[in-house]
Amino acid sequence: MITPNMHYDDLKDSYLFYNIAQKTKAYLEANPGKYLYRMGIGDVSLPLCEAVIAALHEAVDDQSKKNTFHGYMPECGAPFLREAIAKYYAEKGVSLSSDEVFVSSGASDELGDILDLFERSSSALVIEPAYPAYVDANVMAGRNIIHLASGKENQFLPEPDDHLKADILYICSPNNPTGAVFSKTQLQKWVDYANQNGSIILFDAAYEAFIEEESLPHSIFEIEGARTCAIEICSLSKTAGFTGTRLGYTVIPKELVRNGMNLNAMWVRNRTTKTNGVSYIIQKGGAAVFTPEGQKQVKQNIQIYKNNAKMLMEALDQLGIWYCGGKNAPYIWMKCPGGMGSWEFFDYLLNEIQVVGTPGEGFGACGEGYFRFSTFGSPEDTKEAARCLVQLFKKQ
Ligand code: MLT
Predict the structure, then answer these.
(1) Nearest CA to ligand 1 atom 1
(2) Which atom of ligand 1 lies at the shortest distance from residue 107's CA?
(3) Contacts of 29 by beta carbon, 8 Å cutoff, 6+ apart
(4) HSE (CB half, 13 Å, CA atoms) of 339?
(5) pLDDT in tens, 54-84
(6) Backbone Cα Rg of the chain
(7) Which region, left, alpha or beta, applies to residue 12 given φ > 0 means left and ψ of -120 to 50 means alpha?
(8) Distance (Å, whole) CA 160 – CA 164
(9) Which of ligand 1's atoms lies nearest the C-alpha of 43?
(10) pTM exceeds 0.85, yes or no
């Protein structure tokens, strides 16, 4: 009899966002007709911008004509999109060649797939609270996981120290769920650590477009030495509303070599075997994001989410509740009031004011007692949720 991957037995019963979806579904079944203010999973509520929609329509038409039709796409991405992304980095002062950019079907898919590059005996360091897929993907592979807890005392931005021994280092900045952003000086310490120890940083830059403060880095490749120790994984999900459209990109510098193996070349080998590329239509839509018109329009949408963040932050300020994030990231990370536990607070908000958020404990043990709001909902829902929050806690 075949033995399945027994590491699945080490996973939590179900995935965080699936758990939340089940709980809200059960609530609606028990309370038919109730309206929920959904600020749990970071799923966007605004439609794709006009520039993207126009490019998608054009690409669909291309597929209807013999001379513009596309079959299989290049496995690592269409040259037009790889070049557009390299140019986007150049505008941030980061020089890349287009064959260091790999187009993917999204950052969450890629964060799991990229682990193919590493031995299962390698260890993975996860700075917690963290996006739970980092842990789950490594549990499935049977890797040893080092959970590095962070907290209010270090603004959720821990530094490496000499006792730390890890091969794969997950860094998400701006951070999901805390919204904390590493400064260049702080990231330099992680880059130096990785270069000294032969580790590889997996830098999740999914929220870079939300950074407001000019001094903060958008890419790990703004840091000296990163080209010899880092892979950057990014997505158009939050930048341009592609959660349902699916498109991302990964940067692997050609200098990234371990044990004589070139990781860029390894990823080319992986992709050419394991994918037939992202669809032509979606890549055309993605390329439109990087045009001047596309950039202007996606920034307008991001501003709407930032206004949502302001409404929630004002409500928490009014109530004197501690929080961070919301400024350079689309998440607000708050302390549960009255010493409540994360899931207790989840149930309380759901039952009292029909607001759905994400319990901090779902992002790791050190997230217990915290709660995350996503700012990707509609302005109307966010305004009402903020009003209900104030009303609920003012009474206490
Ligand atoms: C989140 O809510 O943490 C993210 O939206 C989940 C994801 O990007 O897959």
Answers:
(1) 42
(2) 8
(3) none
(4) 0
(5) 999 999 999 999 999 999 999 999 999 999 9
(6) 21
(7) beta
(8) 7
(9) 5
(10) yes
